[in-house]
Design brief:
Elements lengths: L1 E3 L30 E13 L7 E5 L4 E6 L6 E9 L11 E7 L8 E14 L5 E7 L13 E2 L11 E7 L6 H5 L2 E9 L2 E9 L10 E4 L2 E2 L7 E4 L1 E8 L6 E7 L4 E7 L6 E5 L5 E4 L2 E2 L6 E2 L3 E9 L2 E9 L4 E5 L10
Parallel strand pairs: 1-2, 2-4, 8-9, 12-18, 19-25
Antiparallel strand pairs: 2-7, 3-11, 4-10, 5-8, 5-11, 6-7, 6-10, 12-15, 13-14, 13-16, 16-17, 19-22, 20-21, 20-23, 23-24
């Protein structure tokens, strides 16, 4: 087990290793043996999808911060850690290092404490105002290294949190100016460009449990009761069934949001709605009809008879399953002048 002291004055004189220039630079260590360290913890930060702008804390040249993630990591690809150095640090480049540890187990308390953890990163603090590290937490993170950010080759599983981010000296004789410097640590979530759809279905009383086919964006959904993760933007779903009315509807997914959608499955029995003046008598297959209510009909060929005083209209109609029909009797008055 490795042991690394963390403090210069005024806490402890460090036990320095002969050379501190072995750079892990975000690569997976060959051995998973934990390191023991005594650290000064100034506070903690949490990466959460509910706070995409992130949060910050100030650190000194010998202090650390605990970095946690929210319990709901469904929309997180990773965590971005930014260390901002003061302009005056450039004159002392190579004096300090940054280290990130994981697998600490319980969250350590603020103040001086001893930890045992695995190293994710150890390197001299780069000669930049801002140093950005991106730590993926899932295999399909899609993160790419750039001149502005270093992406870890190692996936830090959510179970390995909380992390410890630490600034520490790597040379003897730290100047008084460095002791007075303030560094800013900013932690924010790296969000995926997706949201989720949660579906609930209400069945007609006489059709409870009848099967149907669900398609989302023309893709068959095997389990309709699970959360469906989708790219942000417009989508459509289709319901196909011999027992319910076929239906297609559009919906919009917002980034990192869960859309809850309730669908009322419709009885496929054809319905006929009538619209006619008062005192109109309506017959369906020679049976009188109450025009104030929709008429449920069997699929097939039928006859509609409408009588208003001495005016009589008879029309055949072919009813199809799952369709809705509207039958209107329009009485119009046309006046013209020559």
């Amino acid at each position: 087990m490795k042991t690394i002291g963390l403090f210069w004055k005024p806490f402890w004189k460090p036990l320095m290793m002969g050379c501190f220039f072995l750079i892990w630079a975000l690569e997976t260590p060959k051995a998973e043996s934990k390191e023991s360290a005594r650290v000064l913890i100034d506070g903690s930060l949490t990466a959460s999808a509910n706070n995409p702008a992130g949060s910050s804390i100030s650190l000194s040249y010998i202090s650390s911060a605990v970095v946690s993630i929210a319990n709901d990591t469904r929309f997180l690809r990773g965590v971005e850690i930014t260390i901002t150095a003061p302009q005056t640090y450039f004159a002392y480049r190579g004096s300090l290092a940054v280290a990130i540890y994981m697998d600490m187990g319980a969250v350590p308390l603020a103040g001086v404490t001893d930890i045992e953890a695995n190293a994710v990163l150890f390197e001299p603090l780069p000669n930049r105002i801002q140093t950005v590290y991106q730590l993926p937490i899932r295999s399909d993170h899609g993160l790419r290294a750039s001149p502005y950010a270093t992406v870890s080759n190692r996936i830090v599983q959510p179970s390995s949190f909380p992390l410890l981010v630490r600034i520490m000296p790597i040379i003897k004789g730290i100047s008084e100016e460095i002791e007075k410097m303030t560094f800013t640590l900013t932690v924010k979530p790296i969000l995926s460009a997706e949201g989720a759809l949660s579906l609930a279905f209400r069945y007609p009383e006489q059709l409870q449990g009848k099967p149907f086919i669900l398609l989302i964006d023309d893709t068959l959904i095997e389990n309709v009761n699970t959360l469906h993760f989708l790219k942000e933007g417009e989508h459509h779903l289709t319901i196909l069934s011999d027992d319910f009315r076929n239906e297609t509807r559009k919906f919009f997914i917002e980034r990192t949001k869960i859309l809850e959608l309730t669908i009322d499955l419709q009885d496929p029995t054809p319905l006929i709605f009538f619209e006619a003046p008062e005192r109109t008598i309506i017959y369906f297959d020679n049976e009188p009809v109450n025009a104030a209510k929709p008429l449920a009909a069997e699929p097939g060929k039928h006859e509609i008879k409408i009588q208003l005083n001495d005016y009589l209209i008879i029309r055949p109609i072919i009813i199809q399953k799952g369709k809705t029909y509207k039958i209107s009797l329009l009485v119009d008055l046309n006046i013209s002048e020559e």
